[in-house]
Specification:
- The chain is an alpha/beta fold.
- The chain is about 45% helix and about 15% strand.
- Strands 2-1-3-4-5 form a 5-stranded parallel beta sheet, with helices on both faces.
- It is globular and about 55 Å long.
Length: about 170
């Protein structure tokens, strides 16, 4: 365990972001996980500004009980790919809109992983953050009836709310 990040007892999902500036977007992932009752922890650990801290986090993640990592970064977004290189856990990548190119740079650098080390990549911004949380729930729900039931209830409620034209 390190003092360099916040570990939450019982967390099964780790939400990582490259900077605190990603939090307004990634808060949507945390809220979705919370809505589904999924214990998680959120940390800002940059792959290029704090590589050793990231390595420490990723290498200890599985042993600490994490099952899935959600990794968000903007710009030349290598956080998810670097995290995936350091753990066998599923890594879900969230491209951030960043400061230019409307997040296209982050989207491509997260999605275009060379073969051998996969990153599941989601939409740019909050829609992707929410979907990464739902995808994490789908993975976890395969082995957890409570999460499975909550995810199915969320989907049913969402379907019930779809606008009807007549
Ligand atoms: C990336 O650079 C972060 O994930 C963030 O999206 C972007 C800008 O970071 P800051 O300069 O705001 O800290 O590493």
């Amino acid at each position: 365990m390190s003092d360099d990040y916040t570990a939450v007892d019982g967390a099964i999902v780790g939400v990582l972001m490259g900077s605190k500036s990603d939090w307004p977007t990634m808060q949507a992932a945390s809220e979705m996980l919370g809505q589904l009752g999924i214990a998680h922890e959120c940390n800002a650990i940059s792959a290029h500004r704090a590589p050793e801290r990231l390595a420490d986090y990723c290498k200890s993640a599985e042993q600490r009980g994490l099952n899935v990592l959600i990794c968000a970064a903007g710009g030349a977004a290598h956080l998810a790919g670097v995290a995936a290189s350091l753990t066998h856990l599923p890594v879900l990548g969230c491209p951030m809109r960043g400061w230019s190119l409307d997040g296209l740079d982050s989207l491509l650098s997260t999605a275009q992983m060379p073969r051998g080390v996969p990153v599941a990549t989601f939409a740019v911004g909050k829609p992707g953050a929410v979907n990464a949380a739902l995808f994490a729930a789908a993975i976890l729900g395969l082995g957890n009836e409570t999460i499975d039931a909550k995810l199915k209830a969320f989907r049913a409620a969402q379907s019930a709310k779809v606008d009807k034209l007549e």
